[in-house]
Amino acid sequence: MNNESKDQNNESNDLDFNMLTHMLIGPNKRISDRIIMPISLGHQIKTKEELRVEAVFESCTFKTVTSCAVGFAFGAFMGLLSASMDPQVGIAPEKQTVKMIFNDFKVKTTSYGKNFAMIGALFAAIECNIESHRGKSDWKNGTMAGGITGGLIGLRAGVKAGIIGAAGFAAFSTIIDYYMRS
Fold first, then answer.
1. What is the DSSP string of 17-40?
2. End-to-end CA distance of the chain
3. Is the pLDDT assigned to residue 29 strictly greater than 90?
């Protein structure tokens, strides 16, 4: 009788252990034939489609094109504001028409949009390439990209303007990066 009660006790312990593992781990999720990953660990394995979409969103090309589009939209908005507050509109010697004013709006909006798009795309491309080369994502990437971008933009007006542009854009990028990360 003692052996029989021990066998029943062992069977109930095995059953309890199986129930306990099922309660703690839950249904297992198979990753491959060799690895079984419990869902309860909190880490989900991404599917191939999710990894592809993530790779597209993290690519330098996507970041550059997005920055270009957002820069154009922001620049167009700034150009529209600038054109609406332009003091030169009422000073023209001939009588101005609505068509002339709208033409001025169009010129300033597209001009500002192109400039901001160029700056956004240039900065994003340089920053993404620096980040890819360094393998780190920190404030130094933005500062270096700002310095290079400001230097390239200022270089059109000369070496001195390039140096001042590099220093100014690097400082601005550092301040914005500090503000955005904190």
1. HHHHHHHHH-SEEESSSS-EEEGG
2. 71
3. no
